[in-house]
Specification:
Blueprint lengths: L1 E2 L5 H15 L12 E5 L3 H13 L3 E5 L2 H10 L4 E5 L7 H10 L8 E5 L4 H9 L4 E4 L2 E2 H30 L1
Parallel strand pairs: 2-3, 2-4, 4-5, 5-6
Antiparallel strand pairs: 1-7
Helix pairs in contact: 1-2, 3-4
């Protein structure tokens, strides 16, 4: 289940779509029972494949195809995690990540960068500007979903801890 580059992406997308039609979870992106993932990728086919994959796995998925569109979407809709392509025209993923991490309301949102760039310096740059994960294409879909779930667990634990600290201060 590797996705990203190569001729079999279309077949996997078709397979995922047929599974999606049979097992699509109910609810909207605002469904509080499902974590909402914002997918940002200028390649429509990859964005759609990721959307189907995540929805089949129980997530709500929102899709944007550019950096400015993603930032506008973050203003409008709360999300639990951002899945961000690095190489996009105009505003690249690094700049989108910088802006997310600079915004007080968004800085705690985990960012997973997806890219075909394989140089170590690119991964280091993504992590240094605030991304929690940097995953190279082609990627394994099971690993991607596992990393997303791990980041969401970590985020939930951090929020719970912050809540307990706040309760103690208020006593």
């Amino acid at each position: 289940q590797t996705v990203g580059l190569g001729p079999s992406v279309e077949q996997r997308r078709m397979d995922a779509t047929s599974t999606f039609q049979e097992t699509r979870p109910t609810g909207s992106p605002a469904d509080p029972d499902r974590p909402t993932i914002l997918i940002v990728d200028d390649e429509t086919g990859i964005a759609r494949m990721l959307q189907v994959l995540l929805e089949v796995r129980g997530f709500a998925a929102l899709v944007c195809h550019s950096g400015p569109e993603a930032l506008a979407r973050l203003e409008a809709d709360p999300v639990d995690l951002v899945l961000l392509d690095v190489m996009m025209p105009g505003m690249d993923g690094y700049e989108v990540c910088r802006r997310i991490k600079a915004h007080p309301a968004w800085r705690s949102i985990p960012v997973v960068m997806l890219t075909a760039k394989d140089a170590v310096r690119d991964a280091v740059q993504g992590l240094e500007i605030g991304a929690q994960e940097y995953i190279r294409k082609p990627f394994n879909t099971d690993e991607l979903v596992a990393r997303i779930r791990a980041l969401l667990r970590e985020q939930a634990a951090s929020r719970a801890l912050a809540g307990r600290h706040l309760e103690r201060r208020q006593r």
